[in-house]
Known about the structure:
Layout: E1 7-12, H1 16-30, E2 35-41, E3 48-50, E4 53-57, H2 59-67, E5 74-78, H3 83-96, E6 101-103, E7 106-107, E8 112-113, E9 117-119, E10 124-125, E11 130-131, E12 135-137, E13 142-143, E14 148-149, E15 154-155, E16 160-161, E17 166-167, E18 172-173, E19 178-179, E20 184-185, E21 190-191, E22 196-197, E23 202-203, E24 211-214, E25 219-223
Amino acid sequence: MVAAGATSIIIIGAGGHGSELASYIRDLCKSGANLHLIGFVDEYKARGPWCGTEILGNLQDCAMVVRQQPKVPFHYITAMGDNQTRRHLVQAVAALGVPNLQAWTLRHPRATIGQDVTIGEGTCFAPGSIVTTQIRLGHHCILNVNASVSHDCEVGDFVNINPGAVVCGNVKIGTGCYIGAGATIIDKVSIGAWTIIGAGATVIDDLPAGVTAVGVPARIVKRLPMPEE
């Protein structure tokens, strides 16, 4: 039974990250949040029970479920670690044209969010993630387990900051960047859009858009094709 006034949530992506998001939602409910996980959407998995709830079908099936209750607000969050895939999914949801299906921001009870932090819709704050103060976070970002972002940072849309990564103060991270697990970005560094920082890397200098950088200190090892807008 759905509690009165509960926020209805749909997770897009029935994989490992999706199962994590489901557990985060259960943690939020235990802490007193009035949420109801409707189910998962996945283009490649059949309908049926999964992870304590169910797979509703693909995006078109999801749209049908939501359209059946046009006066009920539904909320979704994406569960894809790949930033380009996540952006494509958000674009696909928008293309459905379902006005009562809107992006939802997940803030785990053990996430710490300071003052003067601007957060874009659809962003996930995993357990132990920390953002301090005077920070702008874009839409549909992932701050994974124990990732931290310090003061006066600007983080673009569709950025994934992986577990244990440390972003120091006054850092600018462009759209679609992937910051690997345990990486460190020192203060006042700028990283261009869609750049990948390898796990455990330490970035001490500015990096351009569309590259892969690894190592300590981080060095560019590959140029990447920029995604189409």
